[in-house]
Amino acid sequence: MSSPSIVWFRDDLRLADHPALRAAIDRGEPIIGLYVLDEESPGIRPHGGAAKWWLHHSLASLGERLGERGGTLVLRRGPAERIVQELVTDAGAGAVFWNRRYGGAEREVDAALKQGLREEGVEVASFAGSLLFEPWTVKTGAGTPFSVFTPFWRACLALPAPRAPLPEPRAIDGPGRAPASDDLADWDLLPTKPDWAGGLRETWEPGEPAARARLREFLRDDLGSYDRTRDEPGAGATSLLSPRLRWGEVSPYTVWHEAVEAGGGSRFLSEVGWREFAWHTLYRFPELATKNLRPEFDAFNWPRLKPTALEAWQQGQTGYAIVDAGMRELWQSGYMHNRVRMITASFLIKNLLIDWRRGEEWFWDTLVDADEASNPFNWQWVAGSGADASPYFRVFNPELQAKKFDGDGSYVRQWAPEYLAEDGRPPMPIVDLKETRQAALDAYEDVKQAARSH
């Protein structure tokens, strides 16, 4: 009698270059694909609204692709440790395979599950499928983690090159009788009252086939000009692969090797490296979304929150064109150009003097590519409280940034056209840039002085 293998899909919603799936195929027993919607395990951060929308469609695509090859995807909701144990028992599974996760709460769940299953005689194995370089493999000469990106990435590039991606399986041997599964629609991942996802539907097609098509399109059309135009939000030259990597619809190994084969793109690959750096930072500092990585910033005196200022920022009504364009692009599409992310984040933190955690929470809820490493990591970078942080005195001036990176106004014209219309009536500026910049510098100087006194 067969003892099926369970492949536990997480943030790796693909068939190609999936080491856990390959291990199950090599074991030679029927395969049960499993996805667990875990919003109950301690420390697990529930997905934001835009992320839930993407997850729904990516799971639908994965289930369809598994079915086409003879496999099955079981959906279950609840604390992952219990759910996986129950399916092992229900299916009489002899093995469970997954690709590793690197958040603190996730690692605790995985470690407990691995120990419990092995004690029951179940084969368990985990694999590297989501990062090119695992966190414990990249260290300084003193054996400590890196805190600055450039030497970190240099050390990564000195390691053996990332492995070649694994081929997509043509056939998957499913079980004779599929275990009970939740109906995806019952998870209520899609917004209905109101349905605010129209812009997401117009912008994105989740799923592995679209991810692979986007990678090929970028490498063919945009890689050559990436270094020159990547900072221009109106140029349309970015890869748009961030949500694909966030949900694992394409692996970083595939991106790496296909980029190299297409002619290199060292600057583009360093952006992949920045993603790695964020995950390595989260691995050693699991509370990245809630605590300052640099503890001296705990002394920063955030003024009392002004809800009207926060709402103006969220709604793209600040009176500064590129800030408002970025926030409207985010609300409409679930995405924002990276340069504009830095500008809007700097404006919230340093011109409005609003705690970076409020901005991180908003991006977490509205970005389709928000993950638990990159989102807080980048917010802390702008705030100056994180790894490889920008100097505290760097305050992005949104007007100068717009002139430098959107000189022809194409980005603002698309998302906040009233700023360029002759009879346009844009919002009045809610703060004075010069005054608020000085207030931010004064507050940061207090942090420096407090650190020196200790």
What is the gyration radius calculated from CA atoms? 23 Å
The chain-level mean pLDDT equals 95
CATH level 1 class label of the largest domain: Mainly Alpha
Considering the protein shown, what is the CATH homologous superfamily of the largest domain? DNA Cyclobutane Dipyrimidine Photolyase, subunit A, domain 3
CATH architecture of the largest domain: Orthogonal Bundle
Describe the main β-sheet briefly: 5 strands, parallel
Total of helices:
19
Count of discrete structural domains: 3
From the N-terminal CA to the C-terminal CA, the straight-line distance is 67 Å
Principal-axes geometry comes out as globular
Count every beta strand, where a strand is a DSSP E run of 2 or more residues.
5
Q: What structural class do you assign from the helix and strand content?
A: mainly alpha
Any low-confidence stretches, pLDDT <50, length ≥5? none
Question: What is the string of helix and strand elements?
Answer: EHEHEHEHEHHHHHHHHHHHHHHH
CATH topology of the largest domain: DNA Cyclobutane Dipyrimidine Photolyase, subunit A, domain 3
Write up this protein.
This protein is mainly α. The chain folds into three domains: 5-129, 3-Layer(aba) Sandwich (Rossmann fold), CATH 3.40.50; 131-164 and 209-284, Alpha Horseshoe (Serine Threonine Protein Phosphatase 5, Tetratricopeptide repeat); 295-453, DNA Cyclobutane Dipyrimidine Photolyase, subunit A, domain 3 (Orthogonal Bundle), CATH 1.10.579.10. Helices cover 48% and strands 6% of the residues. It contains 19 helices and five strands. Strands 3-2-1-4-5 form a five-stranded parallel β-sheet, sandwiched between helices. The mean pLDDT is 95.
